[in-house]
């Protein structure tokens, strides 16, 4: 039944997704009726407070996420990405030799230039797999 007491046409009912219920764990398992109410609620205070309690910024990356576990996982991924962006390869990229000695990029480049080490096949010890180089010390 609609607001005027007449039955809502089925297509309208379907259009607004009124038959659907959406439960949001972040909102303390509150149930939203209808697609639109559900979509809108991500920007509303109840959801924002829920996100704040989790210590997660309510950015648009988190819209459509209602599970606390998923929100946490996504937040971890985002934090990791931000860390990689801030990562300075010259200082922090690491190279490891056969004996397990770890050099930063500058030392590695210097040693390489002096012919004290050479590189062999790729092996990952740093965060960016494609940039990884395996370093071997020259036998002297
Ligand atoms: Zn919510």
From TrEMBL:
GO biological process terms held by the UniProt record: mRNA splicing, via spliceosome
Molecular-function GO terms, alphabetical: RNA binding; zinc ion binding
GO cellular component terms given for this protein: spliceosomal complex
Keyword Nucleus: yes
UniProt cross-references to Pfam families, sorted A to Z: SF3a60_Prp9_C
Swiss-Prot/TrEMBL keywords: Metal-binding, Nucleus, Zinc, Zinc-finger
Boundaries of every Matrin-type domain copy: 22-53
Compartments reported by the entry: Nucleus
Domain of life, source organism: Eukaryota
Protein name: Matrin-type domain-containing protein
Species classification: Eukaryota, Viridiplantae, Streptophyta, Embryophyta, Tracheophyta
């Amino acid at each position: 039944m609609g607001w005027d007491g007449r039955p809502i046409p089925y297509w309208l009912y379907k259009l607004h997704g009124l038959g659907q219920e959406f439960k949001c764990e972040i909102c303390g398992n509150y149930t939203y009726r209808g697609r639109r109410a559900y979509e809108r609620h991500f920007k509303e205070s109840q959801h924002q407070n829920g996100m704040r309690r989790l210590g997660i910024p309510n950015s648009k990356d988190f819209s459509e996420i209602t599970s606390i576990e998923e929100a946490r996982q996504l937040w971890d991924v985002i934090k990791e990405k931000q860390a990689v962006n801030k990562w300075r390869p010259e200082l922090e990229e690491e190279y490891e030799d056969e004996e397990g000695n770890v050099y930063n990029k500058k030392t590695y480049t210097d040693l390489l230039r002096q012919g004290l080490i050479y590189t062999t096949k790729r092996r990952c010890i740093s965060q960016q797999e494609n940039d990884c180089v395996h370093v071997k010390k020259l036998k002297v």
